[in-house]
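Dock pyridoxal-5'-phosphate; give full complex structure.
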Amino acid sequence: MELFDVYPLYNVKPVKAEGAYVWDENGIKYLDLYGGHGVISVGHTHPKYVQSITQQLNKIGFYSNSIQNPLQQELAEKLGRISGCEKYNLFLCNSGAEANENALKLASFVTGKSRIVSFKNAFHGRTSAAVAATDNLNINAPINLQQEVTFLPLNDIGLVIHELGKGDVAAVIIEGIQGVGGLDEGEKKFFKKVKKACKKSKTLLILDEIQSGYARSGQFFAFQHHKIKPDIITTAKGMANGFPIGGVLISKRIKAKYGMLGTTFGGNHLACAAAISVLDIIEEEHLMDNVNEVYNYFLKEIKSVPKIKKVKGKGLMLGLEFDFEVGELRKKLIFDKHIFTGGSSNKNLLRILPPLTITKEQVAIFINALKEVLV
Ligand SMILES: Cc1ncc(COP(=O)(O)O)c(C=O)c1O
């Protein structure tokens, strides 16, 4: 059988990884500033993380949600405390798209409405409901959906108020910082006014923190830069350093009922052990402080690099915008300088999503390499 060929792949086969580095089968060492779409939060093969999942696997890896799993409770408590979101309940699932799908479903249940408001260039995943809340980026084919979605320009509060005023919107879904779409973000006053308009029209506000969350932006969740309180927060990617897991943080005002949501694999023992160890490492190694320190260093040093039009994003969720397409630049960085970076639907944007453990020295390696390839 052949693979269903949906991914354009670089010709690199990683066989080993440690911290911010990956080695290929020929022993070439790469600096990983992309972390497999931003999932590597505490660094590749972090010893504590490896130990936690190995030990857990030798006890019990999986049993379904029909029996008690104290690790889910431990994860919920730690996540609540470390993120400052104690006033939410946690539903565990397996991926970002699934988290958003559950969030949108929940919003429909709670409000009795079905229309969703989302924003241009948003990306919320590829299951039916999540695709529904994804702008028509050319990577998503339109499909037949039960939940109608209205896409609005980011930061146009007048249009948001107008749509919510119609009274049929279940939820507004918005990324803390847009990822795949190219690192645009809502302004502080926009987030605040959206929250107010949601409250007034009894619409739920869903913050998709799947990429921008888990300390990546320099706050635990990117919306915390704006001091608002969403009704639902979705998370995945960095949550278990690459182990598949997703979470829906649900305001305590929304009451759970048996059978309302469900999953076979979600919150399994192994996924919880992985996620707990990620939170422990974020806390013990003060990774949020590291994100902010390295970000400040990055902002200072990047000024010395020519041809950059704009630096976008926050913390270690960064984009460098050029006035040319970055495809060739990314190839040169991988094959000449051995540095992984990312792209986005904005073809002129180089995306940087390194492990949160990255050091200033490693950023300096990137800056020097970038200067050399841009000559
Ligand atoms: C903001 C955002 N939401 C949702 C998703 C979907 O997550 P997953 O690929 O785990 O389904 C992504 C993935 O890139 C994302 O960046």
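Observed: The pocket of pyridoxal-5'-phosphate is lined by residues 37, 95-97, 100, 123-125, 175, 179-180, 208, 210-211, 236 (CB under 6 Å).
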